[in-house]
Specification:
This protein has helices spanning 13-25, 55-64, 82-100, 137-156, 178-187, 207-220, 237-248, 274-280, 288-298, and strands spanning 3-8, 29-35, 46-49, 69-72, 108-114, 159-165, 167-169, 192-195, 201-206, 226-229, 234-236, 253-256, 268-269. The protein has 299 residues and is α/β, with parallel strands linked by helices. The strands form three sheets. Strands 3-2-1-4-5-6-10 form a seven-stranded parallel sheet, with helices on both faces. Strands 7, 9, 11 and 13 form a four-stranded mixed sheet that branches. The radius of gyration is 19 Å and the shape is globular.
Length: 299
Amino acid sequence: MTGVLWITGVSGFTGRHLVRFLRQSGASVRIIGVDIDVSAAAHLDAAHAIDLTNVEAVAALAGREPPDWVIHLAGLMPPAAESEMWRANVGGTVGLLLGLREGSRRLRIVSIGSAAEYAPSASSPLTETAPCGGASLYGDTKLVQSLTCLWLAAECRVEVLVARTFNLIGPGLPSRLIAGSLVHQFLAAAEEVHVGNVHTARDFIDVRDAVRAYWLLAQQGKSGGIYNVSSDNPVSVREMLELLSRVSGHSPRIRIDPSRVRANDPASVYGDSTRLREATRWVPTISLEQSLSDMLAQV
């Protein structure tokens, strides 16, 4: 399949993995990277530094490089300020769609959402019909991003679907996220590893499996659909610590840091990716142990 693919947020953790996957898979697409700063982006056919809230800039690029697909990764998460998350996640999505609405060719947009969109009261396994909203400010911005994309699709004459992704893991994961923090502490060979609640369990999906799902959805997903991208398997922080000890050969003491313990944190949150699997025949192929081993080797 040939065509032009825009990747927004191309310079980020997931964007870099998506480009690498496409190049290694031999996908015959022209890859256009879009980000605020594209100086670190690599292996692209073209890169454009654009603020997606600038509708005119998006429209001008669409006139020069009209896309067949857009995988919309751009956005912010904590510790970004609340106002900046609303601006980037929602304002950037509005600017993207409005800037693309004048195109005459068929266009499919995969908007990358988050499991944080689900309500804290929703029980696992989480399907795409579970209640949403209220879990966090970040989750609320992502939920509005997803809904905005779906609402504007008809107005802008584009096809849109949402990939609601659970906890990403993999080489290069930022240390602000739990798995990244643990890996960095193990690499430091510290005598103690500081953690919050070790009993909470989350659904970790390797970024390399996730980006493969995004590309499959761009080609095979149903317009207007929402798809969980998840492993469907809850793993506790303690289990992750045990895996890290095994693959690193280092067994530090575990210290509970009260500042890292979040009140009312759900005990177990994990997804149900049946809809994605049925639509694309996707299955995750990278185990958590392999993810952690690769992170230890490549950080």
